[in-house]
Each structure stands twice: as structure tokens, then as C-alpha cells.
Specification:
The complex is a heterodimer of chains A (238) and B (411). With 238 residues, chain A is α/β, with parallel strands linked by helices. Helix content of chain A is 30%, strand content 32%. The termini of chain A are far apart. The two termini of chain B are 40 Å apart. The chains are: A alpha/beta (238), B alpha/beta (411). The interface between A and B is medium-sized, with 37 and 32 residues.
């Protein structure tokens, strides 16, 4: 079986090792005997019909403005994918742009894709450091945040988890990230997937479920190194 | 006021030495009581002040510039203490100035990190700048890569004579200056040199249309050919790796700008043959009968270039990753490095040994052992085979390795 992974804007949104998330998805599929096909989507490209997993990362400000225009063009198709249950992971910059709007610190309003019911305002200081959160679906999740945007959740979505250490969405309400259908939005770099294999396997199992129409148990992998790295990260100072 | 500051500074230096303290305090106090101290001392230098900044290669490049200028007969003041903050410069001045204010140098060659270079330019006039590169380094300290480029633009604007820029680095080559000149690579070598944006995936190679004052034309083993102001100059290098040879091109351009017609170009290039690397920058040490080369890797581009230069199956490899403040707390950058040229890593250590091991696992690279205890890891690594060895290490891990090797206890 071939799993098609869409990587949104790999050239413009590739800060903080988010490339590692693609590698985590690829290897955990390959180690279980699946074939992986990665589709890079850059500004101006046509979006294919057959997509099983969507991934998008964060970028510096200059990367963000380049993708805004292209995102407007592909938004209707992306929204259809998310609504029909395609698993997706969007981080930092694309997490914000998947929301309703982003109001910069200077007051300029950028229209979002309205895929996730969240809104972001630019903050005065950067929220930086190691993060540990508690999630109902995946247990404790570790990562590293570095953002100045403050994100607030709307009524139609739930947070990914509750902050144990770190700032999370906005540094105030203790929420981190968002969950909607099979989409995960988060500020966590690290990258998030290699050290949180439960999250990776969630995306993979949903992709296979969508493809085969039935729920299958994934083949178990030896996660000794993953779990040790998770444990060490969760104890590092902010 | 100057003599008073010198007196106080030297006094504090003596006292803190007796107490076994660090080098920051005297600088801190003098900075407070006499904010114009640096300006007063350095503005008297006949050949002025040169600042070297950028993400990677500052320490080695500063060492190259200082040694090349000394070989041309200049008396060079440099901050080779490893403290590249303004206070560190003050402390270095205090050590080298007489109590009467006699400061016997022709020129100051200073290594400053990006943020402190800007602060320094506000405290003292600078004449020359050599800006090496803008790469992803410790983003948790400066925020973002574009911000770092803005800092270097400020440094360039402050220099009233030549500003030497790396034309192959897109963020550096677009920096504006009153008197810009460039150092670069031949098309052939450019292909071997990934830029920071190329680390994720190969993009097409862009040949710059800017004329370069110095070009690294060829590099075969330890033999380098440079073109300096149109003149072809060959030399052997003691320094290893393509990135050191390239930074030396920047150093040559700065020296040629400082010396003008007075420096013979081939004799300048010849000077490179005896310049050695600084500690942890390719130095070879003997541990437990093994020859071990220590390679400092602070960020993805440095790591990438180091692997491109030093991956060799006749060596055993060890990688040590720490995440202390000076290393950068965020270890995500390991995922921006392509480790595939390595077929096996015999030992992985450091505070973040398991993050490093995880990175290798997902690249399908064989891992020998994972040992978080650095002292034990080094012992095990150097005891096994007699094959030559290479250790890639982050900054604080390098300091810890130095302590272990010199027989003291670890951190």
C-alpha cells in the first residue's frame, strides 16, 4: 500500500527541524511495510487529489508572507480534506494560518484559511523554551516552543492538551494546540513527532483507516530510544 | 579618567584572579565607571579597528587575520580569550595596556557575536568589518535568522572603511556598506558548499554576479589556490576542511584591504601555511593511545560542512550533544543536518544523547553505543580499536571533553 504525504511549503516553512516530522512519518510507515510517496507543495503548484496525510511547518516572517497568497488558492481543497477526516499536522506558522485570522502586533489583519476555529494576535515578547503538556489522547507530549503569536481557541475546537511546563497557545489559559476532526495544530517543534511516537502513529493509523475503511492495529515497533529521548526532554529546564 | 579606569580595572582583575574568579567582572566595572573607555583606547590605534562577525567560523577567522597581519609586521591586539562580548574586549585591553595608558598596537582585530557587535559599534568607532555568514544558530537567543542579518547590516553601516562580505551567503551578500568588497568561491567549489537554505533539499546553485576581491579557486587536499585582487596565489594549509579554507579567503580579503599596496599578495597567502586551528576546531589529541580529532559543531550548517569534509569510513565516530544555554536549549536543529554520509556512529553521548541517537535511528544509521556519562563514553570510545577517531561535539560538551582529557573531573 502506498501512503501519500503532502508536505506544505517545504522551502518556505522549514524552521526548527520540522523536516524531522516528515522523516518520522516516513520511517514508521516504512518499518511497517508501507510505501511512502511525499508530495512537496510549493507556491504555484497544483494540489493533487489523492492525499493521505497533510503536514505543514513553521517559518520565519519572510517565509510566511510568500505562502499566504498561495494558501488562499488551495484553501477550499484543504478544507475538504480536513472535513472528510484526512489526518493532518500543522505547526506554528501554518497552525496560525489554518485559523480564522492573524492580527500582527502592529495591528495588520491577515485573513486565515478558516479551517480551524482559532484566532491569533501578535504578542510583544517571544514565548521560548521546552514544553511539556498533558493530552487526553496521547499522554504526555514534549516539544520546544518559539513563537510571539498568541492563539485563542473558538467554540468548535478542543485544545490538544494542557500545559504542565511552558506557555502553550497564549501563556494564559494553559491550553496548547488544537484538535479538530483528525487535524492537530500545535506550537510544538522539537520536532514533535520523533519523540512522541503515539502522535505519529495516530496520524498513520487514521490514514490507513481512511484507505481501507476499517480500523487496523498497527504493528508494534521498538520505541526504546524514542521513549528515552521523550523522558530526557521532559526533564530539561525551560 | 582613562588612567583612573585602567587603575581600577587592573586592580579588580588582580583581586578576582586571587580569588580564582572569571574575566567578566573588571570589564563590567570599567564599562560602568567609564562608558567611553573602549573608544578612548581603540581610537588611538593608527590602523584602526576591524570587527569579525557571523554565525560560524569567527574564532578561527579572527585567529587567521591576526596571525597574517603579524606576519606582515603589524602589532595586532585581539580578543583571543574566547569572550566575544564588549566586556571581554575591555578585560583583554586591561591585560595589555600599561598603567600609564600605553597601548602599543597598530590595529585591533576583534571577534564579536552578532548582537554584541552592534553594541560594540555603539560604544566605539569601527573601521573594517568582515561578515562571514548568517546561519541557524541558537535561534532561541536571537529570535530569527532574518533578525540576525539585520544586526550585521548595522555593523556594516558603522564601518567607515572596507566591509568584506561573503558573496555566496544570500543574507550577507545583500548587506549594504559604504565600501563593500566580497570574498567567494569558484563555481566548481560552490557546488560542494551547501547554503543554509539548501540543507533541507538541493536547490539549484546560484553563481553570484558580484566581483570578488578574493576567491577560493581550488582546494586539493591541503593545497589551496586563491585569487587575490586578480593575482593567483597558492599555499598549503594546516587548517582542515573546506569551510576553514573559505573563511581564510575572507581573512585574506580583510588583510589585503587593510594593507593596500603595502602587502605582497603571495606573501600574504603564504602566511596561511602555518596558521593552526583553535581548540576544538580540528585539533588532534592523543587519548588512550587513540588519535582523536575534536570537531566543534554548533549549528546545522557547521555540522553539515563538517560531515561533508570528515565522513570517512576509515575513522570511528562519536557525537556528543549538550543543550546548555551556550549550546542552545533547542535541539531541533539536529534534524536539519543530513547525517547520511556517515555509515556508523560508534558512540553517542552528552545530555541529549538520546535525541542524537533518535536522529540517527530515523536516518537508518547504525549506532554502536549510547552512553550519557561523557567520561565513560570517551573512555569506552578510545579504548577499543586503534583506528583514528573523530568526535563531533557541541560547545559546552567540548569544554567538558577538554576537562576530562586534562585529567580534571567533568563539569
Amino acid at each position: 500500500m502506498i501512503i501519500n504525504i503532502l508536505h506544505l511549503y517545504p522551502k518556505n516553512m522549514n524552521l526548527y527541524g520540522d523536516h524531522g516530522n516528515m522523516l518520522a512519518l516516513r520511517r514508521r510507515l516504512e518499518w511497517r511495510g508501507y510505501e511512502v510517496n511525499v508530495i512537496h507543495h510549493d507556491p504555484g503548484d497544483e494540489l493533487p487529489e489523492d492525499i493521505d496525510i497533510i503536514f505543514g511547518g513553521g517559518g520565519q516572517d519572510s517565509g510566511q508572507t510568500v505562502v499566504e497568497d498561495d494558501l488562499k488558492i488551495i484553501t477550499p481543497k484543504l478544507r475538504d480534506f480536513i472535513e472528510k477526516g484526512t489526518p493532518a499536522l500543522v505547526i506554528c506558522g501554518l497552525y496560525q494560518l489554518f485559523g480564522n485570522k492573524f492580527v500582527t502586533y502592529e495591528g495588520q489583519e491577515i485573513e486565515g484559511a478558516h479551517i480551524l476555529d482559532i484566532s491569533t494576535t501578535g504578542g510583544e515578547v517571544r514565548l521560548i523554551g521546552n514544553v511539556l503538556i498533558d493530552t487526553p489522547e496521547f499522554g504526555q507530549v514534549v516539544g520546544y516552543e518559539n513563537h510571539s503569536g498568541l492563539t485563542y481557541l473558538g467554540d468548535g475546537v478542543k485544545p490538544l492538551g494542557t500545559v504542565i511546563t511552558g506557555d502553550g497557545n497564549n501563556g494564559k489559559d494553559k491550553t496548547e494546540g488544537v484538535r479538530y476532526k483528525n487535524c492537530i495544530g500545535t506550537y510544538l517543534h522539537g520536532p514533535i513527532l520523533p519523540k512522541n511516537p503515539k502522535v505519529t502513529d495516530f496520524l498513520i493509523s487514521k490514514a490507513i483507516e481512511n484507505k481501507t475503511g476499517k480500523v487496523e492495529t498497527l504493528k508494534e515497533l521498538d520505541d526504546t530510544i524514542e521513549l528515552k529521548a521523550h523522558e530526557v526532554s521532559s526533564k530539561r529546564p525551560r | 579618567m582613562l588612567r583612573f579606569s585602567i587603575f581600577i580595572g587592573k586592580l579588580i582583575q588582580k583581586i578576582s584572579r586571587l580569588r580564582g574568579g572569571g574575566s567578566a567582572l573588571p570589564g563590567l566595572v570599567v564599562e560602568r565607571i567609564n562608558p567611553r573607555f573602549v573608544q578612548k583606547v581603540l581610537s588611538k590605534l593608527p590602523q584602526g579597528v576591524a570587527v569579525i562577525s557571523g554565525t560560524n567560523g569567527k574564532t578561527t577567522t579572527t585567529k587567521i587575520v591576526a596571525e597574517l597581519l603579524e606576519k606582515q609586521g603589524l602589532r595586532v591586539f585581539t580578543n583571543n580569550t574566547g569572550s566575544n562580548f564588549v566586556r571581554g574586549v575591555i578585560s583583554a585591553i586591561l591585560e595589555n595596556i600599561s598603567i600609564r595608558g600605553k597601548f602599543d598596537y597598530d590595529i585591533a582585530v576583534l571577534e564579536l557575536d552578532e548582537a554584541h557587535a552592534v553594541k560594540f559599534c555603539q560604544a566605539a568607532p569601527i573601521n573594517y568589518a568582515l561578515l562571514l555568514n548568517v546561519q541557524r544558530d541558537q535561534l532561541d537567543r536571537f529570535g530569527e535568522i532574518d533578525h540576525t542579518a539585520d544586526l550585521l547590516q548595522k555593523v556594516a553601516a558603522a564601518a567607515d572603511r572596507d566591509v568584506i562580505l561573503n558573496r555566496e551567503d544570500p543574507r550577507v551578500s545583500k548587506i549594504e556598506a559604504k565600501h563593500p568588497s566580497y570574498f567567494g568561491l569558484s563555481e566548481e567549489l560552490l557546488a560542494k558548499f551547501p547554503s543554509d537554505d539548501d540543507l533541507i533539499e538541493a536547490s539549484e546553485i546560484k553563481v553570484s554576479d558580484k566581483p570578488a576581491k578574493v576567491i577560493l579557486d581550488k582546494l586539493l587536499g591541503n593545497h589551496a589556490s586563491y585569487i587575490i585582487d586578480g593575482e593567483s596565489c597558492d599555499t598549503d594549509l594546516t587548517l582542515k576542511g573546506i569551510y576553514n579554507a573559505f573563511n581564510a579567503a575572507g581573512a585574506l580579503a580583510l588583510c589585503a584591504a587593510i594593507g593596500g599596496d603595502k602587502f605582497d599578495r603571495s606573501s600574504l597567502a603564504d602566511g596561511l601555511s602555518s596558521v593552526e586551528s583553535a581548540f576544538g576546531r580540528g585539533e588532534v589529541l592523543k587519548i588512550n593511545d587513540s588519535e582523536v580529532e575534536i570537531l566543534l559543531v554548533k549549528n546545522p550548517s557547521a555540522f553539515q560542512l563538517s560531515i561533508a569534509s570528515f565522513a570517512d569510513d576509515s575513522y570511528d565516530f562519536m557525537i556528543v550533544i549538550n543543550d546548555n544555554y551556550a549550546d542552545g536549549r533547542d535541539v531541533s536543529w539536529l534534524w536539519n543536518v543530513d547525517f547520511s554520509p556517515l555509515s556508523k556512529v560508534s558512540m553517542v553521548s552528552g545530555v541529549r544523547a538520546y535525541d542524537m541517537a533518535l536522529r540517527l535511528k530515523y536516518e537508518n544509521i547504525e549506532i554502536g553505543e549510547i552512553e550519557e556519562d561523557l567520561e565513560k563514553a570517551i573512555n569506552d570510545f578510545t579504548k577499543g580499536s586503534k583506528r583514528p577517531k573523530r568526535i563531533f561535539t557541541t560547545y559546552t560538551a567540548m569544554l567538558a571533553i577538554r576537562k576530562i582529557i586534562s585529567g580534571k573531573s567533568i563539569l
